[in-house]
Each structure stands twice: as C-alpha cells, then as structure tokens.
Automatic annotation (TrEMBL):
The keyword Transport does not apply. InterPro entries: DH_E1, THDP-binding, Transketo_C/PFOR_II, Transketolase-like_Pyr-bd, Transketolase_C. This is 2-oxoglutarate dehydrogenase E1 component. GO terms for molecular function: oxidoreductase activity, acting on the aldehyde or oxo group of donors, disulfide as acceptor. The keyword Oxidoreductase applies. E1 component of the 2-oxoglutarate dehydrogenase (OGDH) complex which catalyzes the decarboxylation of 2-oxoglutarate, the first step in the conversion of 2-oxoglutarate to succinyl-CoA and CO(2). It comes from Sandaracinobacteroides saxicola. Residues 342-519 form the Transketolase-like pyrimidine-binding domain.
C-alpha cells in the first residue's frame, strides 16, 4: 500500500471514530435522543473499501452505519444535522440515524430492517449492468443479517445475473445480543458464497492492508463483469449492541483484547512503523479532523428544525395525493371510442408492450414471465421474445428479491414493472413494499423516489383457489402512507391505468382481478392514460349510490339492473383508484341520492369500505336518508368448496337485498 492511500484510510478512520464518539457524547449529555448503534472496531472496513470506489459507485447500508456513510463521502455537517433532526440534515430531519440518505455521494439507502438492503442493492447493480455505467454497488450488513431470508434471495439473484455487486458482511461476532457461535453452525459466512456460485473471501476486518487487497480483488471482479463477491470482514465489536446497552453477554477477555488493539490504535502505530507518516504528521491530521467534527456539531446545533409543512411533504411526489390533504381529482381525457374488443388480460399485456416500446428504462421482473410461459395468465406472453430477456426478466421464486430489485433499479433511474403472481404472496415481501418502497421518498427527505409498478392478481370467486390464493389485501396497503393502490374493473381502465401507473413517480400497486381477466371490452389500440385518483360513474341513478371497484363492479352493475326492473335507479360509482382517492365524486353522488352502499370483495370487517363509510357519515351527517351500508366478504378464510365460496363473497343478490333495506 502506498503512503497516500494508507494515510487516506487512516484519515477516514479517524473521521469515523471522532464522529461516532461525538454522537455518543451528545447522547450522554442529553443533547441527542435516539437509539444509536456504535461502530467502534469496524472503522477500517468501509474506510479501506472506499479507496477502491469511484464517486458515482453506489452503496446500501444498514442501521449500524455511521462508519459507512462517513467513508462514502457525505459531509459531516449533513450527517450531524440529521442526528439533531435539522432541516439541513441528510434527510431534512425525517430519516434520523437509521435512515441516512445521500444520493449525491452514492449512499442510496440506509435501512433499519436487518438484511433488507440486500435485495435493493441487487436492483441498483442490475441498473448499472443494463445501463452500462461501469458502476459497482456495495451492500453492507452484519453477521446477524446473514441468516435473514432476504439476504439469501439477494445473493442467489446477484450470482444468477452476474451483477457488479460487493456484499460486505461486517461480522462483529454478535447479532444483537447473540454470539456468532450461537447464531449459526457455519464456521464463517464467506464459505456460503460457494453455494450460490459466487466468489467469497474472509478477511481480518481490523487490518487495512488485508482489507485493501481483498476488496481490490472483489471490486475488480465486479467491474470486469465477473459477478458479485461475498466479503466477510471480521472485526470484534467494542461496545454493546446499542449505546448504553449492557455488555454482560460479551466475552470479557476478548472484548478487553479487542479494545486494546482497536483498529484506529494499531493502524496508527503501523503507519509510523512502516514509514508512511510521523507521529507529528498524524497528530496534525487528527487535530484537523477534530476541528471538522467541532464545526459540524456547531452547524447542527444552530441549524433550523424542519417546518410543520415537512410533516406531510415527501409522502408522494404530489402532496395532494395524500387522503389526508386531498386536492381536486384530476381531469380525465375524453374516452376514446372504438369497436375493437379485447379481454382484460390482453389489455394488461398490451399496456406493458407499449410501455416497453415507449420508454427504454421500463423493465419487467417476475416469476415465469418469460416466453414460452409468458406468465400464469399470459399477461406477459410474447414480450420477452419481442424485447429480450434483459428487459423482460424472469426471476427465481423470490418475492423479496423481486420487489427489492425493482426498488433498487428505480432508485437508479429505471421504471420497473414487477409482478407478484398472486396478491396473497405480497405478504412474503411486505417488508420491501411497506418499509422500503412506501417510505424511501419520505425517509430520504425527498432525495430519492421509487417509481415502480407492482402487478398483483386477486383470484377471488373464480373457484378452487382456496384460502391462500384468493385474498384481497387493498385495505392493508391503503393503511401504509406512500403506496398508491388502483383496482380497475374493465379492460379499458386496465390498460389506461397501467400506463398511467408506469408514468407515476411513486410506487403503484395495481390489483388485477382474475375474474375480470377473460372479460372482453372496448380497448383502443393506441396508448392512452386513465388518470389515477379519478372515480367513474359507471351508471347514473337517483335513488341510491352503490360504490365499488375491481371485480365486485360486475355484481354491483348486475344488481343495478335488477333494481331498475323494479323502478329503483341506482347510481354505480367505480372507484378505480383507492389511493389517491376521488372522494368528492363519491360524496357528490351520495349527496344527490341520500343513500350509500359500499361493496367490495375483501373481508367486510376493517375493509376499505369502513373508511369510506366513516368519511361519508362525517361529511354528510344530516343529509343522509339512511345510514351508510357496507357489503363485503364474510369474516372467514376463503373456502375451497364452491358452495361455501359463493356464500363467502358478496354477490348481486346480496347487493339487491341490502339496497332494498336502505330504501
């Protein structure tokens, strides 16, 4: 190692150490208040790896992160300001110490969820590969995360696709309060790489010389297109799991030895012994670092806290898409008349075809989406043949990896459409959806966005799918700020809303009802958009309003026909979009008719209809001619036997009975 590199590594190590110590001093004094995870003992790992990275190389790190973000080059002023919850912090004070974000320096995500960053890193690396940027992505996590399923899915995907990615396991010998020996029967982490068909190496994480050589090999391998590496860096933690936590679970003798030979101490001595610097040189360097940390703290202490408006900023690109502060519904272009009729599923296929043709940044990810399968309901049939398997990319059965890769790719400028085969399977990857796709814009203070589309089938009332393949989870999604949810009921809307979702700057979940998939409707051949957040009056009426969406619209419209035969004119509203929500169209309809019946295929208890009912009651109290009514699925798992399934879901006859009761 040349002197310039060696001294650069030491300077970064000192900057990390002093910043870490200053944060802990602030916590001790009561000036700061948060859960903090010290990095003592691990300073050399990112400081050394950073010497091989270019400014535009990207990183995903975990909540024990102060060493990683300092090494990546984020200004100490921004880091310290975030610790103080200031508007000039890395995330405008909205991320905090576990969610630091600095895309300017390539620090794309800091996650507070163990192991969750690995799938996102694969997406960043995929984007680098597809775009030919030459970037390398690093992903840091601890030894505890090495036993998390998301990490295994990411390792497999990265190896399969030969991504330019360096997985850095910072093995500090304790997963929270559990020793490494009690966490796994494996003798180390690095040897697991062979099972995935990738390179793996174990190195002393306190020795910059060894780290420099090992990281150099791994990053050169990634830049050459030879795929990822799992680099295990062993460095004994010098404190408990978090600031102020106990150390009784730690081996006292090993801890004392590690503290006596802390990397900052030993590397300083080695720099002098090897002739890279004198004691006076390093003392001057250390004084300069201390002055920098002092200035960063002073800056943070005097900086402004975020204004009240920041509470509701950065949930979505447009704040008025929040149901809490809604703006006017978007205007909808005139419907394009056509005699051409195709099925709902064909409309979904055509929308993806046209999105791929219009925008080279659009990619498709999902299980079995490539030809000859073309998806389990042929939603992607023909597209991999037409656009190639780089852009229409089949994946392993790994929902966390699919969504995480879509998130990472979107952070790097791509527009992924990811398929989760069945809505029920979203539960397998809910962390990626709810904690990352939904929150990254907010946690980064608007510095990053996640413009992905997640396509999911809902399979209710088509028979034979049973309790784990037929659910409708839209109320769950709607409860998570940052997600947009759409549920078209017909082929025209399916195509137009999917194309609009691809254009949207926020994560959009489109629920595609299998019961609608083979229902034909008029669909223009050219591309068009149906705006999100605009309800449609599917049938005008005067006596009551029936509000629904997705396949339940079939039952609502059928019920309206039955009621009309008896002289009862029901107005049927197709919500189409749950978030953003066009509540004004619903409210205006119910204000005219005086009666409302909300119908959905999801379980009625705590369903989306409950939110609508509450809003209508609050908004129209005194004008209603009857209480707002709801009709949803029964409070049971979805049964297999078709006679029981028919009893579980709402149907036209049940809607008619409810409507008559309202009248």
């Amino acid at each position: 190692m040349d002197s310039q590199t060696a001294i650069a590594i030491y300077r970064t190590m000192v900057r990390i150490h002093r910043t870490d110590q200053r944060i802990q001093q602030g916590l001790a004094a009561g000036d700061l208040q948060f859960q903090y995870y010290p990095c003592g003992g691990q300073e050399a790992i990112p400081a050394t790896i950073a010497t091989h990275l270019k400014p535009d190389d990207e990183s995903v790190i975990t909540y024990r992160c102060i060493h990683d973000i300092v090494a990546k080059g984020t200004p100490l002023t921004e880091i310290m300001a975030e610790m103080y919850g200031r508007e000039s912090g890395t995330s405008k004070g909205k991320g905090g110490p576990m969610h630091l974000s600095d895309p300017t320096s390539g620090l794309m995500v800091t996650t507070g969820i163990v192991g969750a960053g690995a799938p996102i890193a694969t997406g960043l690396a995929l984007a680098a590969k597809l775009k030919g940027t030459g970037r390398v992505v690093t992903c840091s996590f601890g030894d505890g995360a090495a036993n998390i399923g998301a990490v295994h899915e990411a390792l497999n995907l990265a190896a399969l696709w030969k991504l330019p990615l360096l997985f850095v396991c910072q093995n500090n010998l304790y997963a929270e309060y559990t020793s490494f020996a009690c966490s796994t029967a494996s003798p180390d982490i690095a040897s697991r790489a062979a099972a995935y068909g990738m390179a793996g190496e174990k190195v002393d994480g306190t020795d910059p010389y060894a780290l420099h050589a090992a990281a150099g090999r791994a990053i050169a391998r990634a830049r050459a297109g030879d795929g990822p590496t799992l680099l295990e860096c062993v460095a004994h933690r010098l404190q408990g799991h978090s600031y102020g936590s106990e150390e009784a679970h730690m081996d006292a003798a090993l801890l004392a030895a590690a503290r006596a030979e802390a990397p900052v101490i030993t590397f300083r001595a080695r720099l002098i012994a090897d002739g890279h610097a004198t004691d006076a040189d390093l003392a001057a360097l250390e004084a300069g670092v201390m002055a920098e940390v002092d200035a960063a703290q002073a800056f943070a202490e005097s900086a402004q806290a975020p204004g009240a408006h920041e509470l509701t900023t950065d949930i979505f690109a447009d704040p008025t898409h929040s149901p809490e502060i809604p703006g006017p519904a978007p205007s909808e272009p005139a419907r394009i008349e056509t005699t051409r009729r195709i099925m709902f599923g064909q409309a979904i296929n055509e929308a993806q075809d046209q999105a791929l043709a219009e925008n080279p940044d659009v990619i498709l990810l999902g299980e079995d989406i490539e030809d000859p399968a073309g998806g389990i309901v042929k939603a992607t049939y023909g597209l991999s043949t037409k656009y190639g398997r780089d852009r229409v990319r089949g994946t392993p059965i790994s929902e966390q990896a699919i969504v995480g890769a879509a998130i990472g790719a979107s952070l790097a400028g791509l527009k992924p459409i990811a398929e989760i085969m069945i809505n029920d399977f979203a539960m397998v990857c809910m962390d990626q959806i709810a904690n990352h796709a939904a929150k990254l814009r907010y946690m980064s203070g608007g510095r990053t966005s996640v413009p992905i589309v997640l396509r999911m089938l809902t399979a209710g009332k088509v028979g034979s799918f049973g309790a784990q393949h037929s659910q409708s989870l839209e109320a769950w999604f709607a409860h998570i700020p940052g997600l947009k949810i759409i549920a078209p009921s017909n082929a025209y809307d399916a195509k137009g809303m999917l194309l609009a979702a691809v254009d949207d700057p926020d994560p959009v979940i489109i629920l595609e009802a299998m019961r609608c998939y083979f229902v034909p409707g008029p669909v223009p051949e050219q591309p068009y958009r149906v705006p999100l957040g605009k309800a449609a009056i599917a049938r005008p009426g005067r006596d009551l309003s029936i509000i629904s969406y997705s396949w339940a619209m079939q039952e609502a419209l059928a019920a309206a026909e039955t009621l009309a035969a008896d002289g009862i004119e029901a107005e049927v509203i197709d919500l189409r979009s749950l978030v953003p929500l066009d509540f004004e169209t619903v409210r205006a309809s119910v204000a005219r008719t005086g009666r409302a019946l909300i119908v959905h295929a999801a379980v009625e208890f705590c369903g989306f209809g409950a939110e609508l009912a509450a809003r209508l009651q609050e908004s129209l109290w005194g004008q209603l001619k009857a209480p707002v009514a709801r009709l949803g699925a029964r409070y049971t798992p979805i049964p297999f036997a078709q006679n029981l399934e028919s009893m579980h879901f709402p149907d036209a006859a049940g809607i008619v009975r409810k409507a008559r009761a309202l009248l």
